[in-house]
Amino acid sequence: MAGEPSYARRELGAELKRLREAAKLTQARIGAACHWSQSKIVRLERGEASLTIHDLHLLADLYRANDEQRAHLVVLMERTEEGRWWEQYDGLVTATMDAFLSHESLASRISVANMSIYPGLLQSRAYTTALFSKSRHVPDPDQAEALVDIRVRRRHVLDAGTQFHAVIGENLLISPVGGYGVLLTQLQHVLDLSHRPNVTVQAVPLLAEEPFTCGGLILLDYTANATSISYLEHSAGIVGYQLPLEVRRHRREFERMRSLAWSPEETQARLETRIQEL
């Protein structure tokens, strides 16, 4: 994991390359102007090298970046410096999960659909604990609590105001994973989150035609020119997709499931009714 450039750093490099090409400047010319080797410019544009704020403004001057472009570069650079809180769980976080957590933490909009379990960002601690206590994919039972912590800490993106849209199955309002006490806690947790201005939750009725059932679907969108990414979750892991064709295909599937769901208001009413029943 240590040798892989972060998503934020790759996006900063891509934006620097776009500005350089728009200014019709070569890597060799920029290297000479900055008294750097051309290979350093190559590494910067690949996201494989770091920059100081002084160097960033130097490049912005050379590329004749306007105020908006310059401000965007600064934001991207600040994101590359953000703490990767999950690194303290080294050994539990696979390379694939490391990439996913980086992508998720920087997204401006997250769209998820899952008919079989609540998406991670909607899970209460009690629900997550119940899932991991029964999962055969937890390598060591002594690590289960740390895995729960990781999932709970992911929710900081919702506290930060990231737009979040979840489509779930009506069956999740009924299925007592961990017992009815856990279910009640989970339903109240989802209802509370659904009242946040940046969170939308919709449930697909049990009788809906052809609901999506193969694990979970996650779409991650970013501001400006950053590339959208999609992920598919299954019981044993998660797989990422960056090809535009794959991302578009997954976006169409998300929209299809969303079209089958109750409105956010109806979903909240169903949650309230179910809570009263319990």
TrEMBL record:
Pfam families: DUF5753 (PF19054), HTH_31 (PF13560). SUPFAM superfamilies: lambda repressor-like DNA-binding domains. It comes from the Bacteria. Residues 16-70 form the HTH cro/C1-type domain. InterPro entries: Cro/C1-type_HTH, DUF5753, Lambda_DNA-bd_dom_sf. This is Helix-turn-helix transcriptional regulator.
